[in-house]
Amino acid sequence: MFRRLLVAAFASIAALVTAAPASAGLLPVQIQVTPEGGNFQWTYAIVLPSSSQLQSGDYFTIYDFGGLVPGTLQAPAGWTAAVSNTGPTPSRLNPEDSPSTPNLTFTYTGQTINTGQIGLGNFWAVSQYQIATDSFFTAQTQRTSDGKTDNNITETSVPVPVAPPPPVPEPATLALAGLGLPLVGFARLLRKK
């Protein structure tokens, strides 16, 4: 028994020592929802981690943004914004993506940013909805350690319509059901006799 524990302990230590440091590309660090003319502005603050580099053509996608008000997608200088019902999705990532709900994609067009751990600004769109649900956020950047493409996926919040409450029966319907149940029981009793 002691020998098994000792082997397990050494295996755990070896795994910790040889494990590569965790890294991720662009990340949504704060989401703010504010009323705007009967709708709601969803603002995403995006950060470039210290292990990543941002080059022209790198991008991120927010999936299934419900209730998008057309023409309201905004990005800081050096970025373009696009709406499509599918993707784009970085290779080897498989987020859930409804083909009937729009995705927001922001693509970087500026000069290379070599140092990470900086805020890239606020990106926003207006939705008809204020209620949030979980969805996916994917990004493609470059690793500072070796310059290879780094694709990441994480969860973020997106707007969804409020589900209507189930209908409440009218009092008359409830009264009829209440009167009918004893009659059904009485009819079954008569049938058995």
* Mean pLDDT value: 83
Q: Which CATH architecture would you pick?
A: Sandwich
Please give the CATH class.
Mainly Beta
How many angstroms separate the termini?
A: 72 Å
The run of helices and strands is: HEEEEEEEEEH
In terms of structural class, how would the helical and strand content be classed? alpha+beta
- Mass-distribution shape: elongated
Major sheet description:
6 strands, antiparallel
Helical region count? 2
Radius of gyration: 27 Å
CATH topology: Immunoglobulin-like
Beta-strand percent range: 35-45%
Question: Can you walk through the features of this model?
Answer:
The chain has 193 residues and is α+β, with helices and mostly antiparallel strands. It has one domain (23-159): Sandwich (Immunoglobulin-like), CATH 2.60.40. It is built from two helices and nine strands. The protein has helices at residues 2-18, 171-192, and strands at residues 27-36, 39-48, 52-53, 59-62, 79-84, 103-108, 118-127, 132-143, 149-159. Strands 3, 4, 5, 6, 8 and 9 form a six-stranded antiparallel beta sheet that branches. A three-stranded antiparallel beta sheet has the order 1-2-7, with no helix packed on it. A hairpin with a 5-residue loop joins strand 8 and strand 9 (149-159).
